[in-house]
Specification:
12-stranded mixed sheet; 20% strand; 3 domains; alpha/beta; 16 helices; 596 residues; Rossmann fold
């Protein structure tokens, strides 16, 4: 038991709700006391204090120090001049050896205030069950004390990792995912059903997490055990399917195409192993259909001309130049006559030939083959398919590796938001409809990790990505879906999603606007701690919220095989000039849309 005189630092002078004004004792010999050989810093912002209160110890966090901490009504009093003050927010209490967030009783004026020692911190932070928590680094206030977070609350209540470029976000994400992936059960066996889906827009995690992950990537390198990323166009909601093509359609034209898609899905559903009810099928249903045949039929209808007005049976089709849906070649018709002469135009045409030309160009663009070519997931012209969506989703979230990385670095930027949102929507819908099955999220939960989330979760944007992530944030707990948002620009992130994150890991953040958004995302009593962010070291962060008992300033561990993605300019510029033949190789890679 510590001698209370050793740890005494002051007394409570004012209590306003959970906020305390504390006057430091003038007899403190130093603001750097040494207790049991350990040096402590009195009055450090973000550090803790303890208030003995009968059989209970109350704990608070220091949020202000100096003259700003003096209660306004005492500022003019002569006797406080020269005294030292701190402002504290109460955050929890300890009864016996059990610590809990929140307080049932409050201190009164003249109650003693003590510094929190290493033993106190071990009791508070060391109380988490090791089988239900992970270690992510060391508590900054005591480097021998592991920083642990509650994995259930971390995933179920969602979390955001926020920090400026170069603050250590990628390392923090890697450390957390690595810690989850390497968890053991009570018999020291691997946890078999861990499911983490990481959407990686820059391809930066494949190397760091390669030991624990299966990587899906456009233009995959099979030599690195990567698998080709395929996203079936026929599994996209109709609006996202249309958005995958350039060009615009009027509302009437869009409904016309929607009806055509619906009829093809109804027809091709008859070839499925289990035929769905026709009344349940919509244009959004994940049912395969031939996009080549859709284009060909729509294009053919627009081009038709008739020898006799309004008589489709008198079509002027040139049988020597028949089109081909497989090669996206149009049928040839005799051009319509001038001045009302035969042949006559198809008056039922919808005027979408320009859109169909752009659609054809997109279908032939090899950058989009992951969406339209699809290997064995592509239906034939009748809509028959050899491999269905269940096998694709199983390869994503049913792998033996605990982490699946969907590397979107080769996805064209113009459809990045739509593609990432559609991926999330497809998997979340699967989890929703599988909630009573062991492959659903309720029995086998999943963590969605969204790197660079601000790129496709713009504030105020009504995109499929925003809608899907909002749905996961609001409803995910019920269906076993957790969310981990990672961004350097919280001010650009959708406020609704950020407010749903029960935990926040805030790394160094210098932009005041971004810090303001972080303040709005944490509980009011801890908002002053956000002012610490500009002074944090690289790789250091504040963990606040549901996943920890107390806000925890943490020095995160280094991930295995971690290396900066930034080139070391001072070293790289020392090298000789590159071989001139390498310019030709780069041009070849560019033209082939593939790294050699």
């Amino acid at each position: 038991m510590k001698n209370n005189n050793e740890t005494l630092i002051g007394k409570v002078r004012s209590v306003t709700g959970s906020t305390l004004a504390i006057e430091l004792d003038e007899n403190i010999r130093s603001t750097l006391p040494i207790i049991d050989g350990i040096l402590y810093r009195v009055g450090q912002i973000g550090s803790f204090i303890r208030i003995p209160f009968g059989y209970v110890d109350l704990f608070g966090v220091i949020t202000q120090a100096g003259s700003d901490a003096i209660p306004e009504k005492l500022i003019e009093q002569e006797e406080i001049k020269g005294s030292r003050w701190i402002k504290v927010t109460l955050i929890g209490e300890r009864i016996g050896n059990k610590f809990e967030r929140g307080v049932l009783q409050f201190p009164i004026a003249d109650d003693e205030v003590h510094i929190v020692t290493k033993d106190d911190l071990e009791l508070i932070y060391g109380g988490l069950d090791k089988l239900k928590s992970i270690s992510v680094g060391q508590v900054s206030a005591s480097e021998n004390l592991q920083a642990r977070i509650d994995i259930d609350r971390f995933i179920n209540r969602h979390c955001a990792i926020l920090g400026s470029t170069g603050s250590g976000k990628s390392n923090t994400v890697s450390v957390i995912l690595e810690a989850i992936a390497t968890r053991k059960d009570k018999d020291n066996n691997d946890i078999k059903s861990t499911r983490i889906l990481l959407i990686d827009p820059h391809g930066e995690y494949g190397e760091i997490l390669k030991e624990y992950s299966q990587i899906f990537k456009v233009n995959a390198d099979t030599g690195k055990a990567e698998k080709e990323l395929l996203i079936p166009y026929w599994a996209l909601p109709f609006q996202e399917f249309i958005k995958s093509f350039p060009g615009k359609l009027s509302e009437k034209q869009e409904e016309y195409v929607r009806e055509e898609v619906l009829q093809r899905k109804i027809k091709s559903s008859k070839y499925l192993t289990v035929i769905p009810s026709e009344t349940a099928i919509t244009a959004d249903s994940p049912i395969p259909f031939s996009i080549n045949q859709l284009w060909f039929d729509l294009d053919d209808f627009e081009r038709q001309t008739f020898r006799e007005r309004g008589q489709p049976e008198t079509k002027t089709l040139n049988t020597s130049e028949l089109g081909n849906p497989n090669t996206l070649k149009s049928n040839k018709y005799t051009p319509a006559g001038n001045g009302g002469a035969s042949p006559f135009m198809n008056n039922s045409a919808q005027g979408i030939l320009g859109f169909l030309t752009l659609m054809r160009n997109r279908l032939l663009d090899q950058r989009f083959k992951f969406l339209y070519e699809l290997e064995d997931l592509k239906p034939d012209l009748e809509g028959k398919i050899t491999r269905d969506l269940d096998t694709l989703i199983e390869s994503w979230i049913g792998t033996e590796k605990p982490i699946t990385i969907l590397d979107l670095s080769s996805v064209p930027s113009e459809i990045m938001g739509s593609v990432s949102g559609s991926l999330l929507s497809t998997i979340y819908e699967f989890l929703y409809w599988g909630q009573n099955n062991d492959v659903g999220g309720r029995q086998t939960p999943i963590l969605f990790v969204l790197e660079e989330a601000h790129n496709y979760l713009k504030s105020g944007e009504n995109s499929i990505a925003s809608r899907t992530v909002q749905k996961i944030a609001k409803e995910g707990r019920k269906y076993g879906a957790g969310l981990l948002l990672v961004t350097q620009r919280p001010s650009e992130l959708d406020d609704t999603v950020l407010s749903q994150c029960g935990s926040v890991i805030a790394l160094r953040m210098t932009n005041s606007n971004d810090r303001g958004h972080i303040k709005s995302a944490v509980e009011d009593s801890l908002s002053d701690l956000v002012d610490l962010l500009p002074s944090l070291r690289t790789g250091e962060g504040l963990i606040m919220g549901e996943c920890v008992k107390l806000p925890m300033r943490t020095k995160f561990s280094k991930a295995k095989d971690s290396k900066s993605t930034d080139p070391l300019v001072s070293e790289q510029w020392k090298k000789d000039l590159p071989d001139s033949t390498n310019y030709k190789k780069v041009l070849e890679s560019w033209r082939n849309n593939k790294f050699f």
